[in-house]
Amino acid sequence: MMDKLIITAAICGAEVTKEHNPAVPYTIEEIGREAASAYNAGASIIHLHVREDNGAPTQCARRYALAFAEIKRLCPDVIIQPSTGGAVGMSNEERMQPLSLRPEMATLSFGTVNFGGDDIFVNTENTIKEFAARMAEMGVKPEAEIFDKGMIDMAIRQAARGVVAPPLHFNLVMGVNGGIAASVRDFAYLVDSLPAGSTFTATGIGRAAFPMATLAIIAGGHVRVGLEDNIYLSRGILAASNGELVEKVVRLAAEFGREIATPGEARRILGLM
What we know:
Helix content is 37%, strand content 20%. By secondary structure, the protein is an alpha/beta fold. The protein has a single domain (7-270), classed as TIM Barrel (Alpha-Beta Barrel), CATH 3.20.20.
């Protein structure tokens, strides 16, 4: 029997702007609003980047603390999962600032990937070890961010060496410009490559968002959607909120008989309790 479906909402990211979609949140009030829209629609996890009021990405712990407080005020039991990716070009120390707040989970990328043009998201082996050690110190469960198959192999090697503790939870990010394609073949390849006992979420970028969500629902995985990854509800139609994107996943899940996990159920499935 499949676990209930955990929906993660990536509400703003570091790169997408209001010029792309006016619903993208910048201010603390807007971040709270978008988190609540996703939570009320069925999301158990809020994947969080923060922005300055002008939209500039920041990893400032004080800014994260304000966002945490506002999200928890509106969604008391939701799981907040800050990004340690930050934005391209940030230092390791800058990227790790949110870990000082001791969140339940945070992202940990297991390799370097081209993001387009001259943008490179750099995660050396030593970076992975440094971030993993800080997370262990703070009692934070890592979500292994995977952009290609070799990153799964890296995660398995680091687990074997005691750098990260199994069972791991993976996020299979598919359709990034320099990463693995968002195809049925490649989805199956990544899922088949995961170590026994692990759990996974699938994230499709852009037009791949809902096809990958559907595959994950069928395969017993979990789903991430949100304005960070895709600004459209359907072809040519901008999403009015993160909640609209989550609602579409809930409808897809109902078609395939997957119930939606509450935050408490998500904690149990992910071993956070």
